[in-house]
Amino acid sequence: MKKKRILLHVMILVLTVVCFGTGMYGAKHYWSVQPKTYYAHQFQENYKVIMREVVASAGKQYLYRRDFADDNKILVKGEKENITAKDIKVIYRDENRKETYYNKIENYSWSDYDSLSKKQKRRYEYWAKLAKYMTEYGIVYDDSSVKSIMAGNDEKSIKGKSQGNTQYSITYKVGGTQYRYVSDFDYDKSDKLIDQCILEYGEIKALDDKGIMKSLKVNLRDFSSDMEEQYSTDYASDWDSEWSDFSQDIEEILNNIEVCNFGISKNMTYDDYTHQLIEKYNDAPENLFENERYKLMVICICIATIIAALAMFIILMAWAGYRKKSGSAGLHKIDKLWIDLWLILILAAGAYGIPKMLDILASYWNTSNQLVVNIVMIALGIILVILVEMVVLICESFVRRLKYKSLIKTTLLGKICSSIKKAVSYILLNTKTSILTIVFGVVSLVWMLVALKMAANHKLIIGVIMTIVLVIAVVTIIVKFVCEYNKIADGTKKIADGNLDYKLEEEYFFKMNKKLKDGINNIGDGLSKAVGESLKNERMKTELITNVSHDLKTPLTSIINYVGLLKNEGVESENAEKYLDVIDKKSMRLKNLTEDLVEASKLNSDVITFNKEKIDIVQLINQSIGEYEEKFDEKQLTIIKNIQEEPVYVMADGRRTWRVFENLYGNIYKYAMESTRVYVDVKCTEEKVYIAVKNISDTPLDFDADELMERFVRGDKSRTTEGNGLGLSIAKSIVEKQDGEMKISTDGDLFKVEIVMNKK
Question: What is the pLDDT of residue 322?
């Protein structure tokens, strides 16, 4: 299944590359192809733009020569002061003086001409003319050809820089004198020009009315509106448009243009736009009939690859999450990522990257720099392939999550909602916290209302500051609470994962989190203790099985061996009696062990019923000691009793309580050092009876005293004595079943058993 998925991914990407490559090839070779008429139109429009700029520049020359070439020429006549061309130039360069004149002109700008007196009308006309010439000078003085004249190069022919490899020669008349405005290349050398045109009766026409120049017709009057707009706006920042009407001047300029020749230089650079248009025109087809056939082919290939890719995509989605072995849906490692965040990042990258690449592609598409176009197309293809693969992976992950029913759980939004839900539930569980939350909410609401009131009363800054403070406070509290909660959750997870020694040591701001921390730490301690007890029980079970096996095997082996000897030697053998004695002893030991096992099992499973009655515990202890006096005498053990004479009554099962002391004395008989003392003490309070039995051990007490009360645990580690390790365990169980308590302690070689029982 994995190999099939990889194959489908590869096929989808291959089809993506084919579709993108075919589309880009089609766009580059077929969609971008235009007929010759298209490029002819583009060329002529570009040609007209250049003509307009050249004619406008010649017009500036004309205005300068007409009005400003002679410094002494009086432009504005006044009753007290005449303004010459030189005065205009000086005023224009003097900002203070210009501002003074501007203010004087402004005084008349809002006046009703008809309501003015004759004197006021003369002053108005005076300032209006001054404003007009000031504006005019501002238009013309910065033109390069005009500056050439201003520098003293006022020849009959003033050169200007050729524009777009267009060469020109414009002859115009100023005051009866002819002047030429020519390009930096000599237009008269026509052998170096192509696509020439000439002025005839106000119309600029192509000399060779064919090809790219076919049907080119431009009237000089077509430039008047553009020139007027250009002239009017050059100085509009300083003077009102009322003083900037140049329509009559433009008409005069156009009327005085006598010759207007244009041509394209043969020596053009490839980067020139005009040259590129000519090249594209020469390469363009007459019609697009054949081109349409290729377009259709490209479209069919793109549609076919898209359909094939979609089919493979559908198959891939159907297989998503399918596990061949189990036959059910399953998640991958990648599905642990937040799918919504992943999707946002991919969409953001695509939304930024693809338009950026398309802008670069569009800017270089119609240029000569095809290397950049090819590089951008390759980069765009790589980005597209990556995005397609990422989208396929996201869709595949989305389908797997749907099949596995974990879509919401594996999203950032779902995580946030879940955290909020837990936090709210957590808060609601604590009454005090709930009350504080409600109080904080009410305070926040009142605070916000006050902030809005401040903003409404023209105290916007205070309102904004209050709002910012509230937002910071709320965000801080939420973030701090969530952080503390997440730390506690992480600690809980660590404990759940098996790290029972982990402790939450940090101090928390929220009291409820402090309580939760203490509770989790206590749970950890409890679990650690429980695990320790469990391990101990497992170990003791293992030891129990080992000990039981040993204690059962030893007498059984002896019995089998001696029975074998009897069979071989016969019952008439002189050793037969000795063999039978051994068999008898081992049988009795086996019998006692079996009985103890049964009793221990019954005590553990609560099968045994205790017949409790009022008994004298003093009498019972004395009788039990009397029963073991002979055995104690064998090992020269001296009984030291500290028991009162008066009876002490307890509620207990006499027979089973007797078994307790029998087991204690039996333990002393087996493990006490010879020729030592055995102490039996009985003390009473109003409610309790305290019984203590002490003796000196024959072997070092190098073990945990509490372990001796576990089953099959013996002080004799070599297990060479007759004991079975059940005596003390049975005794402890009997005492506890009767609401008593029994514990063992050691002090050096001193072995001590303490029993506490309730008085009647």
Answer: 65
